[in-house]
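B., you asked whether I could sanity-check this one before it goes into the benchmark set. Here's the sequence:
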Amino acid sequence: MKENVHYIDEERYVEFILNAPKDSKPWLLDFGNTPMGRPEGDKVTEGRIELLICLSRYLADEFHFGFGDYRKSENILESYDFEWGQYGTMAPLSLYIEGGQLYQFAQRNYAIFQFAEAVKRVKEEHEYSTPVVAPRNELNIFWEYAKRDLGKMRLAGKFDRWVRKSFGLEKEDHYVIDEYITLPLFGKHVSDKD
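And here's what the prediction gave me:
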């Protein structure tokens, strides 16, 4: 039995995944806090990498296996609008990629048999799905930062409260900024981040 788990950085992502033939074996990828980006690593991520190694011993004929680091793979991760669960980057992000399509697993800590079962159902029970896209680069990644920062600005919150109070919208259960500015101009539907 052969272990075949690849470390995925931008270069390997482009070579192995983005430019992969449509009929190539699917990929099982995990991203987490690894020693490559954070010297102390992370026990949960280490456990997930061990899980991938175990699976790769038995399923190397069916899948390619890989892992990446949250910090070192930022340009890859910012190319997608993943559904970050309650754990955020404290838990690994698991992906299934087949035929140019990416599927995100529910973000949780899987035992090996649970993960094997989840692989069988990921196309039907995924958190997020989209075509595989090129990673961000040093120029277009700043747009992602700007969108995130705009949503976190205190001034935006103060402006929203002022608009709601001034126009008698205080009892509304939505935020004016979100409904009329943030979501229409910066929401996921605007573009595929090309």
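One thing to flag: The beta strands are 5-7, 27-32, 64-69, 93-98, 101-104, 128-131. Otherwise nothing jumped out at me.
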